[in-house]
Amino acid sequence: MLTESSAAVVTATLPAVQAHGEAITRRFYQRMFDAHPELLDLFNRGNQATGAQQAALAAAVVAYAEHLTGAGTVPWGPILDRIAHKHASLGITPAQYTIVGRHLLAAVGEVLGEAVTPAVATAWDEVYWLLACELIAREARLYAAAGLAEGEPVWRDWQVTARRQETVDVVSFTLVPVDGGPVPAFVPGQYTSVAVDLDGGRGQQIRQYSLSGRPGADHWRITVKRVRGTGGAPDGMVSTHLHEHVAVGDTLRLSPPFGEVDAVAGDGPLLLVSAGIGLTPAMAALEHLAATAPQRPVVLVHADRAGATHAHRDDLPRLHAALPQLRTALWYEDATDANLAGLTAEVAGGLVDPELIPLSPEAHVHLCGPLPFMNVVRGGLLRRGVPAERIAYEVFGPGMLRDDRG
Ligand SMILES: Cc1cc2nc3c(=O)[nH]c(=O)nc-3n(C[C@H](O)[C@H](O)[C@H](O)COP(=O)(O)OP(=O)(O)OC[C@H]3O[C@@H](n4cnc5c(N)ncnc54)[C@H](O)[C@@H]3O)c2cc1C
Ligand code: HEM
């Protein structure tokens, strides 16, 4: 709880902080990286360049301040959970909150100038530390649940035992722990953070990849789409590295599984909706159900550019055989080359029409794909009466969907 005097100050200054949120977080990162260049290896440089991380941090701080002052319109719990899982997968430590707090509050002062009186500075310091304490506590529980002792690094070496080219731009890697120890269990929908040393002495970068294989198997699988730069933007750093430089026998540093999204929630009908590389959590869900609940009714809706770009399509006939109540509906922008090769599926041309998605009234839904795709599908499903709490979704980048961000 905020003290009464700080609550009044935060309410009065929230509009200014919100209006300048991204200017504040931009300045914050510049200051922090100047003082701590070693943190450049921890943060995603692509998200810094596009401004996505600055926007996500500003939105989270504003949502928390609204939550504290009672002005919030979106539930805070899911936002906290998402950040804590991401932080835990990166091995964020309590001591680092002091560094972030110092530079974030200094950036507020720099951007808002004289408006930041001592009372305003005190009030926002209080907001920051209430938020930091919530995150530190949640992250401590996540580390403990992952079997990590206090302060133990999250990173473990895994060896690539197989590499499969799924499509021209998508490759999957099968991995086993180098130490020969157990392969951690995970829930379909969870991801691992992968740390790589970029070539040419460009330092380390970390990215998240959803686990796309069967939970409980003696190995993990990740499936990576090569991100190509468009309109003058550079090619993706880590996906290009994985495609070009990582072969069978190589090792990668991986975190334990984290992620708050359960792709197989409930035990009734399940609707999995994915687009492009967003199919990776759905693949883990199907593999899991094939092994543990083969009679569960499942609808898989997948959108892709064409049959040739649809990764893991070759796995679907096997999954259909194992899951008699699986129904697959594919939307290919170019459906001329659908070539289903033994797969039982309905195929439509063009973009997914949410009105036409086969929907059981009590279905739990899992969505994953580009943001515009998820906004359209989620909006359509809400209009068709699916309650928001039954629609789980995964964003392959920082932040949450428009309506949930605050
Ligand atoms: C929870 C989660 C799960 C995920 N699961 C998967 C998965 O299963 N499979 C998968 O393939 N991906 C997945 N991702 C995405 C993955 O983590 C990476 O974001 C993706 O591989 C791109 O990383 P990259 O390093 O190749 O690209 P980056 O180098 O991070 O670049 C990303 C984008 O930013 C642009 N960019 C970079 N620098 C600049 C600049 N200076 N100016 C302008 N634009 C710039 C690039 O052109 C590119 O479009 C997941 C992400 C999350 C958060
Ligand atoms: C109260 C303090 C903090 C808040 C509100 C906060 C907020 C956030 C948010 C909103 C995200 C994006 C989550 C998502 O993927 O949706 C994020 C990611 C991240 N945070 Fe924090 N964070 C805080 C403290 C810290 C600290 C102390 C560190 C360590 C130096 C840190 C490092 C990171 C990193 C490395 C990422 C991933 C960045 C990326 O992928 O671009 N954060 N944080």
Low-confidence stretches: none
The tally of beta strands, per DSSP, is 12
Q: Number of DSSP helices?
A: 11
Q: State which percent range the strand residues make up.
A: 15-25%
Radius of gyration over all CA atoms, rounded = 22 Å
Task: Produce the secondary structure layout.
Elements: H1 4-19, H2 21-35, H3 45-50, H4 52-69, H5 76-90, H6 94-112, H7 118-145, E1 156-165, E2 170-177, E3 191-197, E4 204-210, E5 220-225, H8 237-245, E6 251-254, E7 270-275, H9 280-292, E8 298-306, H10 316-322, E9 326-334, E10 346-349, E11 364-368, H11 371-383, E12 391-394
Parallel strand pairs: 7-8, 7-11, 8-9, 9-10, 11-12
Antiparallel strand pairs: 1-2, 1-6, 2-5, 3-4, 3-6
The chain binds flavin-adenine dinucleotide and protoporphyrin IX containing FE (HEM).
Flavin-adenine dinucleotide binds next to helix 3, strand 4, strand 5 and helix 8.
